[in-house]
Amino acid sequence: MTTSTDFTPEVMNVMTDELEDSGLTPQDPRGRRRRRKTRAKASADTSDRGILSPSDWHRPGIRWGTRITHVVLLLVLIVVGLGPLLWLAKSAITPTQDTLRTPMALFPNGVDWANLSTAWSTVHIDVQFMNTIWVALGSWIMQIVVATTAGYALSVLRPKYGKVIYGLVLGTLFVPSVVLLVPLYLTILNPPLLGTSLINTFWAVWLPAGASAFNVVLIKRFFDNLPREVFEAARTDGAGPFRLFWSIVLPMSKPILGVVSVFAIIAAWKDYLWPLLVLRDPAIQPLSVRLPTLQAAIQLDVYLAALAISTLIPIVLFLIFQGLFLRSAGLGGAVKG
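User: That's the sequence. What structure does it adopt?
Assistant: Structure tokens below.
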């Protein structure tokens, strides 16, 4: 319960002034109601305070110093974060001689748009680009299906030995991925029950991608925070496990699904070692494997243009899903008071 001692003298003065301006006294019931509203407003104002108090913010020296600090930090962040991408975009349409002679100059001898078309058609980056999309799309589907179903079973259904299974999943996070390369490769080479090797097929990349313990733990922890009252209400209305999963849990989990989707696609987009081992045919290799082998065979400007093309999908994904990183999941309104 909030008492008068919880407020500063300035807040108490504001409360008293508001009562006097309205012609009410503290003993009047209407005055008490007005005072409670003022207290609630003051509590909200104090809860929203940042590092600087309102009185400090009104000082010109502190206010301008804070703004200058914000601008400097923002400029440093832009240079560090966007600098390499902007340089790559500039070098992709700059002749090789200009890039080697003056790498930081802005188009000293004009723009060469032919680098992009050469990298796309002549070097056949278009084939590797589509291969990368298929690899990333299949890996994303496998990770979403496995992570959501496993997280749903461990968090919502809660089987008898769920804690033991969850402990085993957590334990796999402490196993280095390099240790699993040999047994995983032998499994893909001679998979049980299939009788045929998965080498040089996209399944050799898709199936291991689904075994992501990190995504299972991440989604399971998110499902733990979902309101149980919604689940009980759905069960009361006759919803079964599948209906509960498809119609209730997944629509409430859009933020975490977006985050996991970005992680999954970017991880598949930049993965190099495992596709190098299982995708030996150049016709099905992704960009992460094919581009390093082309570096010595093509001009620098064409190679930089190919690198710029390979960064398009991650940038587009970030622009699409950035809201899921920046906004919080408003789940409180799902439960009616």
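The chain has three domains: 4-48, 56-113, 117-334.
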